[in-house]
């Protein structure tokens, strides 16, 4: 029975959004590792831009002169590609921290591919390569620790429009 002095609402009251689970420290550590890795990788790659430009120029030396790009254009394209890849890595890390399992899987695939490339192309003779592998492995380990797994599982129950 409704009270005539205090009628109920005439429109449906939306259900309360379930609270987002707290981000576990393991996921925050993985996020920090991926951000650090993206920044360090971008800086190291930028320092090696001349190596890339030289290799590209050697590869295109057999092309007719009108088909060859000037070194400045190659360097600019390299820096743009580097920025895009770095920003994508930051986006994936951000989405992973937000509980998106697809981003965690994508970071895993990229990390495994990067580790494979590192091992096959450069090896582990360079101390910088060893540090890079350690950083990547740390990000992977923290993304799959039990609290991280529980965090990502908790988002399976929440409909996408309520995230």
List the helices and strands and how they pair.
Blueprint (H helix, E strand, L loop, with lengths): L24 H23 L1 H11 L11 H27 L3 H22 L4 H17 L2 H9 L9
Helix pairs in contact: 1-3, 1-5, 2-3, 3-4, 4-5
Keywords: Membrane, Transmembrane, Transmembrane helix
Looking at the structure, what is the overall shape? elongated
In percent, how much strand structure appears in the residues?
A: under 5%
Number of helices: 6
Radius of gyration: 24 Å
Beta-strand segment tally: 0
Low-confidence stretches: none
Distance between the termini: 36 Å
Order of helices and strands: HHHHHH
Specify the structural class: mainly alpha
What's the overall average pLDDT, rounded?
A: 83
Query: What fraction, in percent, of the residue positions are helical?
Result: 55-70%
Keywords: Membrane, Transmembrane, Transmembrane helix
